[in-house]
Specification:
about 550 residues, about 75% helix, two-stranded antiparallel ribbon, alpha/beta, Rossmann fold, seven-stranded mixed beta sheet
Length: about 550
């Protein structure tokens, strides 16, 4: 069998690189890929597919070379004592995600069950390649081997992972002890010690010899060494990234602490401000209540004044009405007296006219009484004058009374005007008090606004100082990143030089392998010649004996 070496690209790494590329099985992926490509087994069964590092390497070879192989992955995806901490995630979900994206059921067939349950799905001597990588306890590995051995063809191969004596959690795995005992009984085996060790058990000598003479094991050791260097380099880079991240996180924590300090101060200041504002609001509310009570009191007082004023006006109007009624009554009395006087005058005038008319007729008859009559007339005239004087006195008294009433009315009006002026003065005093209260309220509000403005200015200063500190931190981080970039560039140059040296070593190794192959061919030729010589000598001896 001619053994070809390939450099595959594993598609699964694009989806789950952390749990596949860095898996303990990853160092053997190139070997299992080349094994599938060169040997082309028909039926492949894996006991313990885990996250699928080995399973997807096998599936990749089937897919790349369009092999007729059928791969079965058997697992419960619950883990064992050595991998239980790795199953904090949904391993089955991750396995299916990669399978569905890259390989589908055409290349990978999953049997989610125990190994003992799955064994009944296969007939004896139907499996070409069996990979045992389940529980790593001695009894479990032994049980899996005994249970599944008869399912493998007579010329089949069984792989065992984790056969190295490396300790996991302070103990060597039982699979190492079982492999050691198994190899003591079966001489047809090969093994790789790297990547936790991979044991290759051949069930017949022919297959063993075919593999032994077909490939150079050191090739995969060299690949693993290179891979180990790459992983260590990635680990080193990751370490520096972690250090940088730790420094950055520490810086951020320091900045956060500074920010929290400022925030606590600002919160305290804000609480004090809120408390002061609350006090101001309470004071304003109290002023408003006092102002409202004052206004209500003034309104009540004004209402009382207006009520009293209305009472005074009502009384004044009643007095005026009474006086007007008295005046009207006096007018009627005056008119009646004038009418009586006029009647008296008219009666007297009529009587005088009668006397004058009868004077001539009785002049002679009453000549003797003319003087008496004249005297009587004078007396009447005197009486009339007296009556007129009395009437005039009555009229003057009435007029005096009217003047008195008018003076009383004027005094009442003056008193009412004085009371109104007093009320207006009190209202002006109340308005002045209200203005002073409002001025104090506006002044308090202005002081509160000034205090809030000062708080906002202080907050802006703190924010500027915080932004300045953040800017300085960012500049320092950028400087560190620049220095790290320079270091990384220098390291990349060294890595490139190292890779060139490795390439030269690989070329030299290939030359040595070619020389070795040439020597092997020469030795084989000499052995054939020696064999022919021996056969010829034996033939001659036999001829001599005859």
């Amino acid at each position: 069998m001619k053994w070809n070496y390939y450099s595959p690209e594993f598609e699964c790494d694009k989806i789950n690189v952390d749990l596949l590329r860095y898996s303990p099985w990853s160092g053997h992926r190139n070997f299992i890929y080349d094994l599938m490509a060169n040997w082309k087994p028909h039926t492949v069964v894996e006991l313990g597919s885990y996250y699928g590092c080995s399973a997807f390497a096998i599936a990749q070879a089937i897919k790349d070379f369009q092999l007729l192989s059928v791969f079965y992955g058997v697992d419960t995806w619950r883990g064992d004592d050595f991998t239980q901490t790795d199953y904090q995630q949904d391993a089955y979900h991750d396995f299916c995600k990669v399978k569905d994206a890259c390989y589908s059921d055409k290349y990978v067939k999953m049997l989610r069950m125990t190994f003992d349950e799955a064994v009944s799905h296969f007939r004896d001597e139907t499996i070409d390649l069996l990979h045992i990588d389940g529980s790593h306890h001695y009894e479990d590995v032994q049980h899996d081997f005994v249970t599944w051995k008869n399912k493998v063809k007579k010329d089949g191969i069984i792989l065992f992972h984790d056969i190295s004596p490396d300790k996991i959690d302070g103990q060597t795995m039982g699979s190492c002890q079982f492999w050691r005992e198994l190899t003591e009984e079966n001489p047809y085996h090969l093994q790789f010690d790297f990547s936790m060790g991979l044991g290759i058990l051949f069930l017949c000598e022919e297959t063993y010899e075919e593999f032994k003479n077909s490939y150079v094991p050191v090739h995969y050791q060299a690949l693993n060494n290179t891979y180990d260097v790459e992983l260590k380099d990635e680990m080193r880079k990751a370490h520096f990234k972690l250090l940088d991240a730790d420094f950055y996180i520490s810086s951020l924590k320091e900045q956060i602490e500074i920010k929290d300090t400022h925030l606590r101060r600002y919160e305290k200041s804000t609480q004090e401000k809120d408390l002061y504002i609350s006090r101001l609001e309470n004071a304003v509310e109290q002023v408003r209540e006092d102002y409202q009570r004052t206004i209500d009191g003034k309104d009540n007082y004004i209402a009382n004044l207006e009520a009293k004023n209305k009472d005074i006006e009502g009384a004044y109007l009643e007095i005026v009405a009474q006086k007007d009624a008295d005046i009207e009554e006096l007018k009627h009395e005056k008119k009646r007296i004038q009418e009586d006087y006029q009647k008296t005058i008219d009666g007297k005038n009529n009587y005088i006219s009668e006397l004058e008319l009868g004077q001539q007729s009785v002049k002679d008859a009453y000549a003797d009484t003319i003087l008496e009559k004249d005297a009587y007339i004078k007396k009447l005239e005197t009486d009339v004058k007296c009556i007129q004087g009395d009437y005039q006195k009555t009229i003057d008294g009435k007029n005096s009374y009217i003047l008195k009433l008018e003076r009383e009315k004027e005094n009442t009006e003056n008193a009412h005007a004085a009371e109104t002026q007093k009320k207006n003065t009190y209202i002006k005093q109340l308005e002045s008090t209200v203005e002073r209260v409002e001025e104090g309220y506006r002044k308090t509000l202005q002081e509160k606004d000034d205090y809030i403005s000062n708080l906002e200015l202080e907050r802006a200063k703190l924010k500027d100082m915080y932004d300045k500190v953040i800017s300085q931190k960012d500049e320092y981080i950028n400087q560190i990143k620049s220095d790290l970039s320079d270091i990384q560039s220098a390291y990349d140059d060294m890595q490139k030089e190292h890779e060139e040296r490795i390439l030269e070593s690989d070329l030299r190794l290939q030359q040595l392998e070619a020389e070795k192959a040439s020597l092997c061919n020469t030795i084989d030729s000499l052995q054939q010649k020696y064999q022919k010589t021996i056969e010829y000598k034996v033939f001659k001896i036999l001829l001599r004996k005859k």
